[in-house]
Amino acid sequence: MQNVGENRSAGSISAAVFLQRFVNKLPWAHLDIAGTAWAYKDYDLCPKGASAFGVRLLNELVEKHYEK
């Protein structure tokens, strides 16, 4: 089993199908954040480099819907 496409790149669909093999009947979601994972210049929200977009997104979700 490989998580790569024909050109050695893993697409969002192949990554989701790969993950689906391991979750059984549990609810799950796949967030494809590869395109937003790196900032090529400084921004107000994050400096140049790793953006932590997925981490910040999930943190906001938990804060708004699961923490009281």
Topology (elements, then pairings):
Blueprint: H1 12-23, E1 38-39, E2 49-50, H2 53-65
**Major beta sheet summary:** 2 strands, antiparallel
Portion of residues within helices: 25-40%
Radius of gyration from CA coordinates: 15 Å
The chain-level structural class is: mainly alpha
How much β-strand is present in the residues? 5-15%
Q: Report how far apart the termini are.
A: 41 Å
Helical run tally: 2
The 3D shape can be described as flat
Largest beta sheet: what is the strand line-up?
1-2
- Encode the helix/strand succession as letters: HEEH
Mean pLDDT: 80
Q: Ranges with pLDDT <50 over ≥5 residues?
A: none
Number of strands: 2
Provide a short characterization of the protein structure.
This protein has about 70 residues and is mainly alpha-helical. It contains 2 helices and 2 strands.
Feature tags:
single chain; 68 residues; mainly alpha; two-stranded antiparallel ribbon
How would you sum up this structure, described in words?
This protein is mainly alpha-helical and 68 residues long. It contains two helices and two strands; from the N terminus they run αββα. The longest helix has 13 residues, at 53-65. It starts with 11 loop residues before the first helix and ends with a helix. The mean pLDDT is 80.
